[in-house]
Specification:
single chain, 302 residues, alpha+beta, 4-stranded antiparallel sheet, 3-stranded antiparallel sheet, 7 helices, 20% helix, globular
Length: 302
């Protein structure tokens, strides 16, 4: 009935709490428009009714758990400690510094009440479809495995460089400060250290191999666009889903439901259904259900 919440981005904002405890029924999804995250809660010192603000732990809080007496224990990253909210006791976990400018920027409240990590927890994605006033529904994209070399960014390919992305998103939509080039470079460098998820090993390997053959079949043509180490040619294509969109990497694709730019496909099987673009999105209409299942098995191994 209660949720303990870490707001790691508030570590650099003394007036804002890093750890709060809230009734679960108060945690409702919010929206975001294109110009400013107006649907997100604005920074405020006063917590909402029912929300209990915990004393501020030292350093940047990154994890929290309930103890047996329902008080909270908080792990901080820099310095590396375990902090007990009930007594204020600080237990050192390491004396080695983990300070990293890129990590700090990624997790810092930019000014509009959100951080990069708000939508990209652990560098991944939040599993949500955001409705932007100026472009429509867009599925959050993952940053896992790095993004250098995948320019232009975003589904629409409108962010031609990382510097433009920082300016438009971090400084504009998130109300963040202008980042000096060296700070922007540090942020990009840290993002590119985020590892991809490990490949699944619980898939029927015979089915996956049949799917791999289909994926690379020139008639089916999946590999025409999803090629190279990241399984993307970094180009934009109209695959029958409304307009030109960037070809996404298929690495860890099975972990990124719902699928497509607007999240219209709840499962990989649905991607081959009505909202998937038909034969403009790989020539799959002639595949029988068993072949589609094999293709999905292969995608689940990526």
């Amino acid at each position: 009935r209660q949720a303990a919440i870490v707001s790691a981005g508030n570590a650099g904002v003394p007036a804002l709490p890093q750890v709060t405890v809230s009734p679960i029924d108060m945690l409702t999804p919010k929206g975001m428009d294109c110009a400013f995250p107006s649907g997100m809660p604005s920074p405020s010192v006063a917590p909402a009714p029912g929300v209990v603000t915990q004393p501020t732990p030292p350093g940047q809080a990154v994890a929290v758990a309930f103890l047996s007496d329902n008080t909270v224990a908080v792990q901080t990253r820099e310095p590396a400690t375990l902090w007990l909210g009930s007594t204020g006791q600080v237990i050192s976990l390491s004396t080695t510094s983990r300070a990293d400018t890129g990590q700090q920027v990624f997790h810092t409240n930019a000014g509009g009440g959100v951080a990069c990590a708000s939508c990209h927890p652990e560098g991944g994605e939040d599993g949500r479809v955001w409705k932007f006033a100026c472009i429509g529904a867009r599925r959050t994209q993952s940053m896992r495995g790095g993004i250098v070399g995948t320019e232009p960014f975003h589904w629409d390919g409108d962010m031609t460089t990382f510097g433009k992305l920082v300016h438009e998103v971090f400084e504009g939509r998130m109300s963040g400060p202008a980042l000096r080039p060296e700070i922007s470079d540090a942020l990009l460098g840290w993002i590119d250290t985020i590892p991809g998820l490990p490949a699944r090993t619980d898939i029927d390997q015979m089915a996956a191999e049949r799917g791999r053959v289909l994926f690379n079949d020139t008639t089916v043509a999946c590999a025409t666009c999803h090629t190279g180490a990241r399984l993307t040619n970094n180009k934009s294509a109209d695959v029958g889903t409304g307009k030109l969109f960037q070809v996404p990497s298929l690495r860890n694709v099975a972990a990124r439901a719902p699928f497509l730019h607007d999240g219209c496909a709840p499962t990989l099987k649905d991607r081959f259904g009505a909202c998937g673009g038909g034969d403009k999105h790989g020539k799959t209409s002639n595949l029988n259900p068993a072949q589609v299942a094999d293709l999905i098995s292969y995608l689940e191994t990526l």
